[in-house]
Design goal:
Helices cover about 35% and strands about 15% of the residues. The protein is globular, with a radius of gyration of 17 Å. It has one domain (about 5-90, about 125-195): SGNH hydrolase (Rossmann fold, 3-Layer(aba) Sandwich). The protein has 6 helices and 8 strands, in the order βαβαβββαααβββα. The strands form 2 sheets. Strands 2-1-3-6-7 form a 5-stranded parallel sheet, with helices on both faces. It has a two-stranded antiparallel ribbon with strand order 4-5. The relative contact order is 0.18. Helix 3 packs antiparallel against helix 4. It is of the alpha/beta class. The longest helix is centred in the middle third of the chain and has 19 residues, at about 120-135.
């Protein structure tokens, strides 16, 4: 069995730590020896750190599930730090707004998002980190597949990128998708990985 590394955000994380079932990363684990470093709710910076934390040359293929510029890096999440799935999350506006309804101490973070964050700056930081990720993978000899499932397009021109537009039609509890959505993602990525076998 070939060795597959998954790095990325919640879309490629192992949701079975919290929910029963099988998302597309779990399905791939039936075909490959998978090491999954993905973290739910993480920024592109944490994806960069995931790649830096491991010898990528020990793997036959890597799938990078990219985040979005709208996720703000923090060392420790003020809400999810005890959650088994989201303990490594960064700040996501909608999460903080929802949590601030119960915890008014979070309102300054909501204000920070609404009045002080500049999306052009966030996009610049995101693109710069994408470039760093590309540099890490430049000398890697195996297959790299870049993926994204966010509605806004990934601006950085990664080679071999697969963009999924299933969220609105296949939303669900595992890896953000229902069973059908997870099967579509699994089959699409498996087809791309078949050149390993």
């Amino acid at each position: 069995m070939n060795k597959l590394l998954l790095v990325g955000c919640s879309w490629s994380a192992d949701w079975t730590v919290k929910y029963p079932g099988s998302g597309w990363p779990n399905m791939l684990a039936n075909d490959f020896k998978v090491t999954n470093l993905s973290q739910s709710g993480c920024s592109e910076y944490k994806i960069y750190l995931q790649l830096k934390s491991i010898d990528i040359h020990k793997f036959d293929a890597i799938i990078v599930s990219h985040s979005t510029p709208r996720v703000f890096y923090v060392k420790n999440h003020p809400v999810h730090y005890k959650d088994s799935l989201h303990k490594n999350s960064d700040l996501i506006y909608t999460d903080i707004v929802e949590a601030s309804k119960k915890d008014k101490l979070l309102l300054p973070i909501v204000s920070f998002f609404e009045y002080y964050i500049d999306l052009d700056y966030m996009q610049f930081v995101f693109d710069t980190i994408c470039e760093k990720i590309d540099q890490i993978l430049k000398d890697y000899k195996g297959l790299v597949i870049h993926t994204s499932h966010f509605r806004e397009d990934l601006n950085y021109n990664f080679p071999n990128i697969v963009k999924f537009k299933l969220f609105e039609t296949h939303r669900g509890l595992l890896n953000h998708y229902n069973d059908d959505g997870n099967i579509i993602v699994y089959n699409t990525l498996l087809q791309k990985l078949k050149e390993l076998k």
